[in-house]
Design brief:
CATH superfamily: MetI-like
Number of helices: 11
Number of strands: 2
Largest sheet: 2 strands, antiparallel
Radius of gyration: 23 Å
CATH architecture: Orthogonal Bundle
CATH topology: MetI-like fold
Helix content: over 70%
Distance between the termini: 49 Å
Structural class: mainly alpha
Length: about 260
């Protein structure tokens, strides 16, 4: 069985390596071109910004979901239902075309002539639409991850902290969240990797990411496959680095939990 797998793999590699239609010289020519590198930088920027929005907003949504306030918990449930129910590509296209719904964005004091406004198209660019679409969508998933981590902490820990005179914010910050991190970190790291690849969807709205730049090049020189290979090589490389970082972070969190439990 192993020999058969190796044989098939060798045949696939050989067919790719010697396939003249792949034009490896074109692949090498554009792999580190300024446009591709610009796309790589924007992909990383989108990933970090959108994931940060997802973590911060997701934490607030998780706390709202666990709140005894029915309004807050209902809002959190509705948010998750809405954003997890609509495909992320649909959300990106919606935000990019927000001007069709609101041609102008304005803010002012009610019942007074005072206010300022700006055209929606001046604010909602491809990049900002990508941030809104990916960030708000990610928050719905991060909320469930963080909520799972919080409810995974034994309730007696919080009760003991409150018995010592800690207020609820202190209990959350110093007792619950540190212990919940061992549950939160692994899926969050996976979400970052998924976000890295999900940024390619912004090519549909000209978000300026790696795939957008590759499309811009091959729309002029018609070298579709070589440019897609360039993009794929960069995605594979970035994912590999993110995976190594994930493993290191998980080991660090694991050591922290073990050392904390040994005291």
């Amino acid at each position: 069985m192993a020999a058969a797998i190796l044989l098939v793999a060798a045949l696939v590699v050989r067919s790719l390596a010697f396939n003249q239609n792949l034009q490896w010289s074109v692949v090498g020519h554009y792999l580190f071109s300024p446009a591709i590198l610009s796309g790589v930088a924007e992909t990383l920027e989108l990933t970090l910004i959108c994931q940060l929005i997802g973590i911060v907003l997701g934490t607030l949504l998780a706390l709202a979901r666990l709140s005894r306030n029915p309004v807050a918990s209902t809002f959190a449930i509705g948010y998750g239902w809405l954003f997890r129910g609509i495909p992320v590509l649909v959300q990106l296209i919606f935000w990019y075309n927000l001007a069709l719904l609101f041609p102008r964005l304005s803010i002012g004091l009610p019942f007074t002539p005072w206010g300022v406004g700006v055209g929606t198209n001046a604010v909602i660019t491809g990049f900002s639409a990508a941030v809104l679409g990916l960030g708000l969508n990610e928050a719905a998933y991060m909320a469930e991850i963080i909520r799972a981590g919080i409810i995974g902490v034994d309730a007696g820990q919080a009760e003991a902290a409150r018995a010592l005179g800690m207020r609820q914010p202190q209990v959350l910050r110093h007792v619950i969240l540190p212990q919940a991190m061992r549950v939160i970190v692994p899926p969050t790291a996976n979400q970052i990797i998924l976000m890295l690849k999900a940024t390619s969807l912004t090519a549909f709205i000209a978000g300026g990411d790696l795939l957008t730049q590759a499309e811009g090049i091959y729309s002029n020189n018609f070298q579709v496959i070589p440019l897609l290979i360039d993009a794929s090589l960069w995605y594979i490389s970035l994912t590999a680095v993110a995976t190594l970082a994930q493993q290191m972070l998980e080991r660090q969190v694991g050591r922290g939990v073990l050392s904390g439990g040994s005291r």
